[in-house]
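Section 5: illustrative case.
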């Protein structure tokens, strides 16, 4: 089947879903349809996309035989939508996080195995040019042996953009919103952690909040290695860094400035690189990578097995926040 005949169904017409739909539509070689149970969602899709075919019922939408389904619903619905899509014969790009629990991840992986469809998770930081430069440093051995990887983000803006305000009531929404950090640790370090110690607090007097709104997690590994995630919903303007420290050099990405700073211990030198990027370009590259995978080509995307490890990491973080103790990261067999 040629790319020009592929039909893409975007399920969920929030901001991310509409971004996917708009960027697929602009290609001119895909048929784009949308599905949302909310009447307001369908109205917004038509306002953004024009006279696009919209469905309010997923079963009816899948009966139209889409080739690709983009799952952009709230994460508690990712499992049911993705499984239904694969069983209907569609390949799936599922927005992050993969799903809400290890059991749901297992169900999604079983559906993929039974159907033979492609399942990829929308961790688009793989396509951020500064993050890719950091990974290049790690993979090339520029940093030596990694000892610590960190992901730090502050984003009150996320709460301001939230339409449902689910972060206020859903315990641990902060780690699901920023599951990017979990995936980045796996992507950069290429190994799953053994356990995690995490703390979360609900702090400050900001108008908008989440439960918790400040979270810190420290992952340990089978080898001398640490992974650290710090997320808060207090900082504005939004700020974030990704850093890997090795025994030869360290590299830090300032996501806001799209700048990479490399410090060489053995040479006692510092290099700075600015890597321009445009947000839509990350999504464009991600979708092209999905098409490449469907066509049997290699592409640097998070697959279902890797996505399930991120889910296991999130589960362990929330268990540790509740228990106050170190919790093991229990990955699915074979992951």
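Designed sequence:
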């Amino acid at each position: 089947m040629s790319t020009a005949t592929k039909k893409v169904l975007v399920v969920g017409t929030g901001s991310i879903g509409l971004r996917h739909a708009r960027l697929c539509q602009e290609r001119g070689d895909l048929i784009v349809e949308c599905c949302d149970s909310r009447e307001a969602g369908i109205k917004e899709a038509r306002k953004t996309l024009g006279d696009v075919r919209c469905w309010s019922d997923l079963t009816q939408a899948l009966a139209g035989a889409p080739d690709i389904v983009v799952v952009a619903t709230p994460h508690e619905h990712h499992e049911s939508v993705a499984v239904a899509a694969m069983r209907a014969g569609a390949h799936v790009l599922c927005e992050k996080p993969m799903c809400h629990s290890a059991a749901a991840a297992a169900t999604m992986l079983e559906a993929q195995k039974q159907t033979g469809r492609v399942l990829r998770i929308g961790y688009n930081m793989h396509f951020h040019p500064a993050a890719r430069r950091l990974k290049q440093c790690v993979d090339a051995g520029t940093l030596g042996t990694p000892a610590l990887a960190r992901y730090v983000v502050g984003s009150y803006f996320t709460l301001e953009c939230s339409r449902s305000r689910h972060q206020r009531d859903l315990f641990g929404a902060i780690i699901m919103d920023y599951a990017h950090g979990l995936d980045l640790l796996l992507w950069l370090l290429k190994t799953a952690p053994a356990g995690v110690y995490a703390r979360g607090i609900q702090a400050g007097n900001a108008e908008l909040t989440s439960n918790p709104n400040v979270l810190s997690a420290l992952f340990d590994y089978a080898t001398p290695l640490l992974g650290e995630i710090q997320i808060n919903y207090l900082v504005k303007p939004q700020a974030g860094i990704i850093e890997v420290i090795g025994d030869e050099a360290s590299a830090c990405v300032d996501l806001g400035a799209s700048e990479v700073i490399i410090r060489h211990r053995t040479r006692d030198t510092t290099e700075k690189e600015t890597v321009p990027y445009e947000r839509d370009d990350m999504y464009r590259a991600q979708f092209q990578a999905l098409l490449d995978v469907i066509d049997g080509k290699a592409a640097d995307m998070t697959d279902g097995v890797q996505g399930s490890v991120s889910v296991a990491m999130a589960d362990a973080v929330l268990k540790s926040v509740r228990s106050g103790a170190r919790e093991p990261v229990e990955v699915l067999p074979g992951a």
